Amino acid sequence: MYITDINCDMGEGMDNDALLMPFISSANIACGYHAGDEFIMKKTIELALLNHVSIGAHPGFADKAGFGRKEMQLSSEEIYDQVTQQVYLLQKIAASLGTKLKHVKPHGALYNMSVKDASLAANIAKAVYDVDPNLVLFGLSGSYSIIEARNNRLRTASEVFADRTYCDDGSLTPRSEPNAMIESVEVSIQQVTQMVMQQVVISNSGKEIPIVAETICIHGDGENALLFAENIYHSLQKNSIAIQSH
User: Fold this and answer.
1) Which residues does 208 contact at the CB level (< 8 Å), separation at least 6?
2) Which of 11, 73, 136, 148 has a CA 20 to 30 Å removed from the CA of 19?
3) Which among 141, 204, 137 has a CA at the least distance from the CA of 168?
4) Is 77 within 8 Å of 127 (Cβ atoms)?
5) What's the pLDDT at 31?
6) Are 58 and 105 spatial neighbours (Cβ–Cβ below 8 Å)?
7) Number of domain units in the chain
8) CATH number at residue 146
9) Residues of the domain holding 213
10) Low-confidence residues of the chain, pLDDT below 70?
11) For the whole prediction, is pTM greater than 0.85?
12) CA 151 to chain CA centroid, nearest Å
């Protein structure tokens, strides 16, 4: 039997969080640096609890103007501090509501940089471990994010993307390039099903890339996020793929 998780970035100021919740199993909640604030974090956790969705922290660079998608060159100490501060804050709010965080998924540029930078990935993993060694780190399948998290004794969930295309090295096509985003529901469903059931994804050039699809990301800020989430959810069920969080 195939099993996977559907995660979505939430608490980022979009108006579709409540509509998306029934079709996901894990919510990555912005921690105030790239988006959101303590009020939104609390409301998003409450929404997740109502829908029996697992809660995770979504720490990013302190870059609200650029939505955390601008690369920043920070020291190891600064990265460590920014990640721990964000996860601790969401952890505190979750505890006040009688619940716990299950996972951490870096956001935007922080995520993409850690995919290819072993030192940065290790620094993020250490920060997460020091907050709570029981947290699961979500990272791009086959990347340094997963490798270094395991080296730092963290449990991991290898992530794939429903609405993004891939380069030949298994990384995501940069948003600045054409064809970075998948706009067709049918193409998205085909890619997701292939990633879960065949453990491969086809790159932009047609290359077959091995992949592990333990959690599937749907971007909550995408124009067709709700349409994608609903169709992917029902498609997985139709293919007898169980949906559950880590």
Assistant:
1) 200, 201, 202
2) 136
3) 204
4) no
5) 97
6) yes
7) 1
8) 3.20.20.370
9) 2-243
10) none
11) yes
12) 20
- 215: tokens are 């959690």
57 Cβ contact partners less than 8 Å away, ≥ 6 residues apart: 28, 29, 31, 86, 87, 90, 91, 101, 103, 104, 105
What's the angle, vertex CA 159, arms to CA 125 and CA 8, rounded to 5?
Answer: 100
Write the burial class of residue 117 (CB in 10 Å: 0-12 exposed, 13-18 middle, 19+ buried): middle
CA distance 214 to 145: 14
Nearest alpha-carbon partner for 132 in 84, 99, 184, 68: 84
Q: Is 58 helix (H, G, I), strand (E, B) or coil?
A: strand
Contact 4, 211 (CB under 8 A): no
Cα–Cα dist 227/223, whole Å: 9
Contact 144, 116 (CB under 8 A): yes
